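[User] Could I get a sequence and C-alpha cells?

[Assistant]
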Amino acid sequence: MPTRNSAARSIGSAMVAGLARLRSPFARGTRRRNQDEFFAELLRQLARMTEEVHRANLIQEYRIAMEQMDRTIDDPSLADARSTLGGISEAKRRQMIFANRQYTSLLLSYRIGTFDWRELLGHLRILCRNSLFAEYWDRTGEHRRSLPADSLERRVGEAVDSIMEELADDPDEWWVVGHLGEPPCP
C-alpha cells in the first residue's frame, strides 16, 4: 500500500536522523533535548499512522458491507436473509436496504473526516426529507435502541430523530439547523 510504505519511510527517515543526532558530539543537555524532540516527533508520526490505518480499516469494512448490500439488492433471496424487516414487498425491501446504504455512507464520511459534524447534519437534513428514508428510519427504530448510549451511531441516530421531529413540526423550514448538540466523540 502506498500510504503504508510512505509512512514507514517517513518513520524510518526520522529514526535515522534521530540516531545521527544521538551520536553527535554535542553537550549532554543538547543531546538530551534532541532525543526528546526526536521521540516526540516519532510519537506524532506514529499517531498519524495509527489514525490512517484506522481510517483505512473503516473504509475496507464499509466496502465489504456495501458489497453485501449490493448483492442483497440484486438477489431477493439474499435480501430475505439480510433484512430483519418483515411484511414488506421485495421492491420495498430493496428500497429500505438502499436507504440504509445512503445513511451508512454519510456516517462513514463523518467517521473518516470527510464531513465535520455540521456538514453531516446538513446532509442528514436533506436525506430526512426523502419519504422512503423516513419510512426506513421509522421501521428501524428498534435497531438503534439496542446500540450503546455512548456509541457514535446512537448519537447520530438521536440527531436524526431530532431532525425528523423538526421536519414533522415544520416541513417547510427543513434547512433550518436547530441545536442538535455537540458532535459526538469519534
Remarks:
- The CA atoms of residues 74 and 171 lie 34 Å apart.
